[in-house]
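Hi all, a correction to my earlier message: I attached the wrong file for Cytochrome P450. Here's the right sequence:
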Amino acid sequence: MVLVPGYRFLPTKLNTSSWKLDKQIRRNLEDLIGRRKGGSVIIDEERKTDEASAHAAAKDLLGLMINAGVSGTRRTGPAPAEISVRDIVEECKTFFFAGKQTTSNLLTWTTVLLATHPEWQERARKEVLQVCGSRDIPSRDQLAKLKTLGMILNETLRLYPPAVATIRRAKTDVHLGSYNIPQGTELLIPIMALHHDTRLWGADAAQFNPGRFVEGVARAARHPMAFIPFGMGARMCIGQNLALTEARLTMALILQRFSFRPSPSYIHAPTVLMLLYPQYGAPILFRPLSSCGFHPGTVS
Ligand code: HEM
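and the right structure:
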């Protein structure tokens, strides 16, 4: 690939459409914030009579950001500085883009792996039916008890981490093992390569074996930091718990209702396009558990 300096500022077809999309996303988010802000003003005016609803509105992340500078939404201490609409828009974009595709990607690979490993699909379903029943929406407490499903999600994140690498820049000169790293050097941390290293994971590193997580994440490999699908340290993924809860819930709902296998047209070809994707999609055949006959579907 050849990188032409300043190319991204040229009005090419791709750049023009990307600028248009950016403008539209910004406008949609500003509209949403405007509508919610209208609500927060009312909340602020009525706070003496209806403080409970102010706290309810501030409960989600957007509400918390909008209400950050509104007095009366905190029970103690001075109100923090107001966050500008521009910053809220940027935060929303970060959370949406960092949170949506990564999690749907995890769900795609989990479905593919369970479709191609029916014995683990059966084990996971048995556990879900035992803990959550066959129709009810699983509760948070029930989700926490799904140990086999947790192991399966970890093994999926090990084999197909949606983010294949992360980057750090040295703030100062540092010694790292036998290396001297000068200040300002960018280091690429190859998450996927680490997850597939036979020195850390054993000879079966390339195999799908959720059992390796039976004693927890820290004991799954020969080094406790060998498994880092959400990064590590102070800047590790802030959405880890949300992503894992969403994945547990979605997979539990699917397992309660369907059995599934890969469509004959499935071609296993993981590829990196920002995240790790199945290059030709993931066509899967779903069968409702209460009837027979497979229904085609594509997860991606
Ligand atoms: C399976 C799902 C997900 C995976 C695999 C994933 C992975 C990652 C990774 C590898 C990083 C970089 C961490 C580092 O460099 O140490 C990251 C950062 C981040 N993720 Fe996630 N993520 C997922 C879901 C989410 C969700 C659901 C959200 C929010 C709703 C989210 C928000 C973020 C944010 C805001 C950062 C930047 C954190 C910072 O710089 O302080 N992610 N994620």
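Sorry for the mix-up. The beta strands are 166-169, 174-176, 179-181, 186-189, 258-262, 270-273, 275-278, 283-288, 295-298.
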